Amino acid sequence: MLKTKYIRLFQNATTARRMGFSGVLAAAMFLTAGVASAEFVAYTGQPNTLKEPPLQAYGGSLGMDFTVNSAINVDAMGVYDAAGNGVINGTLQVEIFEHNADNSWTPITATYAEFTSANPGTQDLVNDGPYDVYQAISPVLLDPGNYSVVAVGFSTQDPNGNTGDGSLGATEDNSGLLTYTGSSRYNTDENDALVFPTTVDGGPANRYDAGTFEFSEAPEPASFILIGIGLLLAAFVGRRRQKSLLKA
């Protein structure tokens, strides 16, 4: 794909001279737009019946592990909204933790988001259904490695889902950028503090309707080379055109 783009770019160099600056600039913008990746949802909340069970009022941290296979950009964090009405009654927190070489887990603070009645986030009915709410964050790059998305604060007012109690469990993304691992995890201390949960649950890897996030594939460096070539070509043609106008 990349080789084809290069060939087309240089094959059309002669045509570009006839296009003028605006035409080549438009072509460069087209190349830039082509770099944008599709948006994916890590865990899609399910329409569980509002009762316990299958829903659960667990106040401790709930985590689900995943492996990033190819670098991604996380640009929104989300939590489960059991009612599907975009309303959060208490306080829900979510954050991604990274697994380190020494087997410890470190929070990626740039992924932290807090949802309250005053700031409940918004539904994304394009990429997800109504059973998750999201807050946009500045894009955070996750390189290939092991991670866990952890959420806390669920209650009778804002219940989570748990397949162990009969709920459906979150639906996993199928882009291939992520692999879902482990059997999910929880913190035995239900004190509403966002901490990494160390107690391993009984599975599956998408056991809970709890925390989630939206992401896209991170552009490869070669994509930025294409953008640079396109912009340089636009500048070159524009300069040639300007010189021609001055001579006239």
Commentary on this structure:
The relative contact order is 0.27. The protein has a 6-stranded antiparallel beta sheet with strand order 7-6-9-4-12-13, with no helix packed on it. The chain is built from 3 helices and 15 strands. It has 2 domains: 2-36 and 226-247, no CATH class; 39-217, Sandwich (Jelly Rolls), CATH 2.60.120. The chain is an alpha+beta fold and 248 residues long. 24% of the residues lie in helices and 35% in strands. Strand 6 (91-99) and strand 7 (105-116) form a beta hairpin.
Strand residue content: 35-45%
CATH C-level class of the largest domain = Mainly Beta
Counting copies of identical and different chains, the oligomeric state is: single chain
| CATH architecture term of the largest domain | Sandwich
Low-confidence stretches: 1-19, 27-35
Q: Profile the largest sheet.
A: 6 strands, antiparallel
Radius of gyration: 23 Å
N- to C-terminal distance:
41 Å
Structural class: alpha+beta
Tags for this model:
248 residues; alpha+beta; Jelly Rolls; 2 domains; four-stranded antiparallel sheet; 15 strands; globular; disordered N terminus
Write the layout of secondary structure elements.
Elements: H1 2-11, H2 13-35, E1 39-41, E2 43-44, E3 55-56, E4 62-68, E5 72-80, E6 91-99, E7 105-116, E8 132-142, E9 145-152, E10 160-162, E11 171-172, E12 178-186, E13 199-200, E14 208-209, E15 211-217, H3 221-247
Antiparallel strand pairs: 1-15, 2-11, 3-10, 4-9, 4-12, 5-8, 5-15, 6-7, 6-9, 10-14, 12-13
Helix pairs in contact: 1-3, 2-3
